Amino acid sequence: MRARIRTARKAMVVAAVASLGAGLLAGCADDGGSDGSSGGSGGDSGGKTKITLGLFGTFGFEEAGLYKEYEKLHPDIDIQQTVVERNENYYPTLVNHLTTNSGLQDIQGVEVGNIAEIVKTQSAKLLDLSKYGKKSDYLEWKWQQATTEGGETVGLGTDVGPMAICYRKDLFEKAGLPTDREEVAKLWAGDWKKLVQVGEDYKKKAPKGTTFLDSPGGLLQAILSSEKDRFYDSSGKVIYKSNPAVKDAFDLTAKAAEDGLIGNQTQFQPAWDTTIANSKFAAMSCPPWMLGYIKGKSKPDAKGKWDVAASPKSGNWGGSFLAVPKSGKNTEAAAKLAAWLTAPEQQAKLFAVQGSFPSTPAAYESDAVKSAKNEMTGDTPIGTIFAAAAKSSPVQTIGPKDQIIQQGLTDNGVILVTQGKSPEEAWNTAVKTIDNNLDQ
Q1: What is the residue-level pLDDT of the chain in tens, covering all 440 positions?
Q2: What is the C-alpha to C-alpha distance for residues 159 and 64, in angstroms, rounded to an integer?
Q3: Is the C-alpha dihedral spanning 225, 64, 344, 322 positive or negative?
Q4: Could you give the CA distance from residue 85 to residue 89 in angstroms, rounded to a whole number?
Q5: What predicted TM-score, i.e. pTM, was given to this entire model?
Q6: Complete edge-to-edge strand list for the sheet that includes strand 164-168
Q7: How crowded is the C-beta side of 277, counted as CA atoms within 13 Å?
Q8: DSSP state letter for 374
Q9: Which of 245, 257, 262, 216 is nearest to 409 (CA)?
Q10: DSSP codes, 180-249
Q11: How wide is the angle at C-alpha 95 spanned by C-alphas 346 and 288, nearest 5°?
Q12: DSSP line for 74-143
């Protein structure tokens, strides 16, 4: 799921950045990264030490001027990046290069949905970055995601996607619901079932042609993002079918769909984009980067009509890492660059320009985060709201095939309830699809 989401969110960031002011939104859509020449791993350029990065999507380092800044601080370093637009095209090649220990860049980006598999199967090929990055700088759960059982940290976190709920103040008002973000958050605090109950209240006076939430996939993603254990247990066993938290989340989403509280579109598809443009729903699951998507797909008159409230429970949707292959010619220089790019000071700068939400709590105290505004949400203190969610998100068990399971539950599961299938039929279809993809 996350591979597709980064693709969906990256291009929208370009449109969102102009509205950031102090900055916001990590992006996932047309992944318009800038393609630099790779020249292979290591080597030198005009007598300088060349450090190459292999990335997917738009990490934003070049766009935020961080490469030039680092080169100015280190005149003997020349930084070049190679970008593949979509992670689903990038990741298989990365795994192949790690397996054969060839063709790797000095620094490689890793999507959060792939980090568990990298940690489990490829950590021997990667440098322990705990000697370069400071554990105390990063969110505990973010650091842990890239750390092996033996205590080696093979990836430094670039960004996170703390969960909130974005809502249309004008539609809430028309439906007789409060519009103040603190009052709105109180309506569903602590329980996703309360969020669905608010949807029932919305439905009673809903403006014609609107639903409470945008999509079943968005709701299911949000609920599961707040669970410590989802698809795998700590031993690496697949448990999604037997985990009550997964089935409860599926059933709650299915009920909301049956009751007509959710739109019938799959997220990040053209038809779903249209529901944003035409104001067809009142609320949606919303990590920081989603605001960029909202802006990119909205009509001009939607500016200032959105607000952001805390979600029922804290969770995370999105984020990536930087890893350093041991086979590189300049591993020491690459590790130092990776640590610098992901340090709090640079993450704050990246947030201000590109909108990627920092994985380093120290950055939350910066003006770039504290004063962050977005034109879709007006004066809403988005940085403060998302920072609180990031700090309280659970340390989640990540499995190697999380994306396959998540996408099966959403795109081959709960969406079917909006098309007339029963929740039981939708669940069985999802399970069959997932197990086929997992070869179980």
Answers
A1: 333 444 444 433 333 333 333 333 333 333 333 443 333 344 555 689 999 999 998 898 998 999 999 999 999 999 999 999 888 899 999 999 999 999 999 999 999 989 999 999 999 999 999 999 999 999 998 999 999 999 999 999 999 999 999 999 999 999 999 999 999 999 999 999 999 999 999 999 999 999 999 999 999 999 999 999 999 998 889 999 999 999 999 999 999 999 999 999 999 899 999 999 999 999 999 999 898 889 889 999 999 999 999 999 999 998 999 999 999 999 999 999 999 999 999 999 988 877 789 999 999 999 989 998 888 999 999 999 999 999 999 888 888 889 899 999 999 999 999 999 999 999 999 999 999 999 86
A2: 14
A3: positive
A4: 8
A5: 0.82
A6: 211-213, 281-285, 164-168, 306-310
A7: 9
A8: B
A9: 216
A10: SHHHHHHHHTT-HHHHHHHHHHHHHTPPTT-EEES-HHHHHHHHHHT-S-SSB-TTS-B-TTT-HHHHHH
A11: 35
A12: -TTEEEEEEEES-HHHHHHHHHHHHHHT-S--SEEEEEHHHHHHHHHHHGGGB--GGGTS-GGGS-HHHH
The alpha carbons of the chain give a radius of gyration, in whole angstroms, of 21
**Rounded distance, CA 104 to CA 334, Å?**
12
Q: What are phi and psi of 110, to 5 degrees?
A: -135, 125
Q: What six digits make up the tokens of 42?
A: 């290591």
Per the DSSP assignment, residues forming a β-bridge with 110 are 321
Q: Which amino acid is at 11?
A: A
Measure the CA–CA gap between 85 and 78, rounded to whole angstroms: 23
Q: Are strands 48-56 and 77-84 parallel, antiparallel or unpaired?
A: parallel
Q: Which residue type is seen at 367? A: D
Q: Can you say how many angstroms the Cα of residue 406 is from the centroid of all Cα atoms in its chain? A: 14
Please give the span between the terminal C-alpha atoms of the chain, in angstroms, as a whole number: 20
Task: Give the bridge partners for 84, in sequence order.
Answer: 56
What b-and-e string marks burial along 392-428, b requiring 16 or more CB atoms within 10 Å of the CB? ebeebbbbbbbbbbbbbbbbbbbbbbbeebebeebbe
